[in-house]
Amino acid sequence: MIYNIEFETLPREALEAIQFRRLKTVLERAYAMVPFYRRKFQEAGITPADVKTLNDLQRLPFTTKKDLRDNYPFGMFAVPMDNVVRIHASSGTTGQPTVVGYTARDIASWSELMARALSAGGAGRGDIIHNAYGYGLFTGGLGIHYGAERLGASVIPISGGNTRRQVLIMKDFGPTILTCTPSYALHLAEVAQEAAIDFKELRFRAGIFGAEPWSERMREEIERKLHLSAVDIYGLSEVMGPGVSVECQEAKKGLHVFEDHFIPEIINPETGEVLPYGETGELVFTSITKEAFPVIRYRTRDISALNPEPCICGRTHVRMNRISGRTDDMLIIRGVNVFPSQIESVLMEIEEVEPHYQLMVDRVGNLDSLTVMVEVGEHAFSDEVRILQELEKKIAKNIKEFLGVSAKVKLVEPKTIARSEGKAQRVIDNRKL
Ligand code: DLL
After folding, report:
1. 333 Cα to the center of ligand 1, angstroms
2. Which domains are seen in the chain, by residue range?
């Protein structure tokens, strides 16, 4: 169901008129209120008044994660602190977290966009949403929560962790929609099985999964194990949180970007050049409604492509492809570029292995080595050593064939790779230590 039929199905021309008007307002606010933006614009020799069409957006400078860090904690806020009603922060794997703020109106827009996203994922009034995204500084828990309430659904604010208890609550409360990271969804399936709870007998109809990369094969696996229909939801704290884009249940082919609130661009990460629709590159977002923390041409480092083709669901907003990696999670193994998602795709083709894996990169002498650790199913693990060794060889051969990189494959026992309650840690890069 389309939650906001008027805005989600706007014809392109009307949508662009709204985008332009909102863009002008946000540029003026950022220029007037945030010293960083004023300085950046002045260095580029441009003022908000010079932006006369949507295309002029391309003349504005980019904003990077480093810029946000340099202004830690509140330097990028565009409203006085007494208008800020909420603060979140992205954990970040290295260095300082990025701090973001929201006015009451920002929270209202975010709730609306999350209501749209949940609705696109199949939720509605009368649904019970089991929300296992973490509550706290992370935007996942509260973002989904406010959207669920706006939608008029019932939300169980279970947060992450205490997985045993979660599966009991699933059995007793009968939730119909599951929201969590895809890796946690698989973990829930495992723990349910241990507790002799069959997902087939639960009431789940749909799941709205995101916050970390996952593949099409991972979707199939989740749908099969959890007996629900899974869609992908994307977002990032700097731009808002979850609900920047989402797949629709009708097509499940690319994520609709809520373009009346965010303008997406794809750029060549090396040159900064804007790429046409269909080409793959780094996603860049400009927020055009946020008051407290506007971002202008924010470089996400996420890799995707934009697809303007009309969608069978009726939404007119452009779709982005599922994120295929990050410009900074690309591993360069002896000169070959490899994304963890590509390895995941190769692994998921192999029937005997489970969707739990970890990549370890080491440097021995001057040479990089990649070890792929992947779990095998209970059933396969009881096989003879010789059979397991052959399986390792087969996986290594496929990785070499599809990605051009040699990897050492290590099959590990079921349930030995650490499970995460939020985002899974897929790569351990010992080269940096
Ligand atoms: O992960 C917001 C979120 C919460 C999205 C719940 C979806 C559901 P951050 O912690 O700031 O925010 O992390 C943002 O996570 O730049 C991507 O690299 C990655 N990411 C988020 N969603 C997806 C997705 C939240 N669907 C960073 N597919 C982003 C792939 C994703 N990567």
Report:
1. 25
2. 1-328 (3.40.50.12780), 331-429 (3.30.300.30)
